[in-house]
Structure prediction request, 253 residues.
Amino acid sequence: MARYQVILAYDGTEYKGFQRQANARSVQGEFESALTRLNWQGRAILSAGRTDSGVHASGQVVAFDLDWPHSPQELGQALNAYLPGDMAVQSVRVAPVDFHPRYDACARTYHYQVYCQSERHPLWERFAWRVWPEVKLTLLQQAAQLLIGRHDYAAFGTPPKPGSSTVREVFRAEWQEHDGGYRFTVTAKSVLKHMVRRMVYLQVQVGQGRLALETLAQGVQAAFPLAPGLAPAQGLTLKEVLYSENFSKTVES
Prediction:
């Protein structure tokens, strides 16, 4: 019996989130179904975090214990043979017996993709948010810099448990041109519920000239309540979960 650490990618369009649900398709449910076909006897896999309905991942991390007589590479191949087409194992390795993908993580990196066009583009809509009027990249970049640091992000999301802290630390936040649009990259120790999508929505408001940078700064620095709104799920991807071996290099780059 060994503990395995798996990097998992999935298109979240047809999933009602990561967490297993009784009457809806979930990432956890599909993955555990494939594991069961390999004689897995566990009750639940461990994960680095739960993505919401419609959110994608290229670097979700899960772990489980399994009696597997072959190589980790062959385990990945076996799992992919049973997983649906919108989900695939990217890598497998043997982990320490006490490894936990959530509690051992140093940070998570998310990407959010937007494109600016007055009419929808069917090939982009699945993984990006179409915004119009067009945003100004320079304003997005200025807004992103305001998000970096340790702050009370109560204006940007809700804690996992009622009454728990809304203080979080953001190590990196930036916008770049990407795939005909703009991509937001954010790395944080952990995030509040809907925090990244809320960040994107408010920054787009800044980029369109509808929200002042000074007002956004108040929301970050003083938890000042900001106008409601949330970027749609399909633009968000959990890019990577960082552990001690790759945390410093990624954050400093």
Remarks:
- The chain has a mean pLDDT of 96.
- Strands lie at 2-10, 46-47, 56-66, 87-95, 107-116, 129-131, 149-152, 167-178, 181-188, 236-242.
